[in-house]
Amino acid sequence: MFTSVRDDLRATLDEIRAAGLHKPERVIGTPQSATVEVTAGGRPGEVLNFCANNYLGLADHPEVVAAAHQALDRWGYGMASVRFICGTQEVHKELEARLSAFLGQEDTILYSSCFDANGGVFETLLGAEDAVISDALNHASIIDGIRLSKARRFRYANRDMADLERQLKEADEGGARRKLVVTDGVFSMDGYVAPLREICDLADRYGAMVMVDDSHAVGFVGPGGRGTPELHGVMDRVDIITGTLGKALGGASGGYVAARAEIVALLRQRSRPYLFSNTLAPVIAAASLKVLDLLESADDLRVRLAENTSLFRSRMTAEGFDILPGDHAIAPVMIGDAAKAGRMAELLLERGVYVIGFSYPVVPQGQARIRVQLSAAHSTADVNRAVDAFVAARAELEG
What we know:
With 399 residues, the protein is α/β, with parallel strands linked by helices. It has 15 helices and 14 strands.
């Protein structure tokens, strides 16, 4: 039976390659850092890493690594269980309490990933008589989580408050019992920041709850690194915050929902990814506590990240590259053609700069790009070298 299926799958894979949409996996032989060694999938050797979510450079921070070593001795390797059976340790409860305090929420529940966190919220909180109103550019995990629920689905154009109000009105006219507005805090492919104050104002006007996936903001956006709710001064007005431990907060894995106490309490009883998935490894929980310690004195890292971001964006603009506007560390260099974006990424790797070309279905057709991500671990020389490599790669590509 599989023989015919194999032929179909191979034909599909050939089509993906022919369209320039194939996504090779490059293998690195070093810890995640500003500089990594590529061992397979590209030119072997040491390269500058400009495509990781390691915003604050904490993925290989010596204090985080030391905390992980200590946790292995204290708590063991894994839980071999889910939370409500025998999978809850003191370190998990401590991390939940620390995240709640840091994010200004009443309680927090840990998941194995933010994808699971987003997958477990909507089905638990919303039924067929409810409505969820989602930004058109929300992350795939939000889209998939919404699909799992029976709630009526409304979508508004990216950051378009007039359209959001239209959808809220339509949900009201349809007799929605509960309404939940959900948005990324920072949109991962564009680096755009959601207008949370305006969203909260509309939610208040129409009696809706607000949910924010702040994965690309917590740790470095806002005066204290508490994310987009802090940036916009609405920490007390956002009902649900989801996020990850796998980006600025150490770069490992794991996710969370920080929310009103009753929401978290219900998630502990009904959220399927929480009830049926193994507990977050204790070593990650313990290392994440150390990350939160470091964030209390991380102003210098946040300043350095902002400086690196400003330098890259200003120099690339001066060199005539099309970069989506903003000041976030996600700096998308727009290419348009998928094959061209992939080829430019290869040329940059040959010049010692590791980036990835993003194309459909990750981004819309015709909007292929190279998403550059700055880190506090990059030096000024690293940033300048990356810009120089872009200029040289463009010259070869167009020559």
